[in-house]
Specification:
Rossmann fold, seven-stranded mixed sheet, globular, alpha/beta
């Protein structure tokens, strides 16, 4: 997490585009969220704010205090009802959070983890997601060759930790917008349903 803290301390990290990811907006328009929503790795809160603006109850979680400070500052300038609840927390220790949610949003978190931690991630997300709930996951794909950036994953690599107790409902190739690539990074948007 030191690397992420350093990115915020240095100014604007490359993933902070100050607007929601287009794929998240697409899911909102399609009615693919149910409250309450957990936004994992919320960063400066743009996706959480978009969800709250659409009427969803949102808990937004990030391990980096500076990201949460910026997110709270953004949300305070708006009159959101309900307003997102921003919490310090880690995707690998959700079972201690006391949360139970209907939808989890992961906008570019899963791919930062090692294979072993991805297995743990699937267990942790499963511990807070209600039966029949959905995880919407946005991850850099194997087609992304430009540097810099995190791990690039195939659909099979992303799906591997979600075999037992999960159903993959949708897998769409898309773009992840950032400040590095004018046209965004090659990505996957995948929806898993907890069986």
């Amino acid at each position: 997490m030191r690397e992420f803290s350093a990115r915020y301390a240095g100014g604007i990290p490359p993933w902070q585009i100050d607007r929601p990811q287009p794929e998240v907006l697409r899911l909102i328009r399609q009615g693919k969220f149910q409250s309450p929503v957990l936004d994992l790795g919320c960063g400066t809160g743009d996706n959480a704010i978009a969800l709250a603006s659409s009427g969803y109850r949102v808990v937004a979680m990030d391990p980096i205090p500076e990201a949460l400070r910026r997110a709270r500052e953004k949300a305070s300038r708006l009159s959101l009802d309900p307003s997102p609840e921003f919490r310090k927390g880690n995707a690998l220790s959700l079972d201690k959070s006391g949360l139970k949610v209907a939808t989890v949003l992961d906008s570019a978190v899963f791919h930062i983890f090692s294979d072993g931690d991805q297995e743990r991630y699937a267990r942790e997300v499963g511990s807070v997601l209600a039966s029949g709930g959905r995880l919407h996951l946005l991850s850099f794909s194997e087609r992304e060759t430009r540097q810099p950036g995190p791990r690039r994953l195939t659909l099979e690599q992303i799906s591997r930790p979600f075999q037992a107790g999960w159903v993959r409902e949708e897998a769409v190739r898309c773009r992840y917008e950032d400040l590095v690539r004018a046209d965004g990074a090659h990505a996957w948007r995948i929806t898993f349903r907890k069986a």
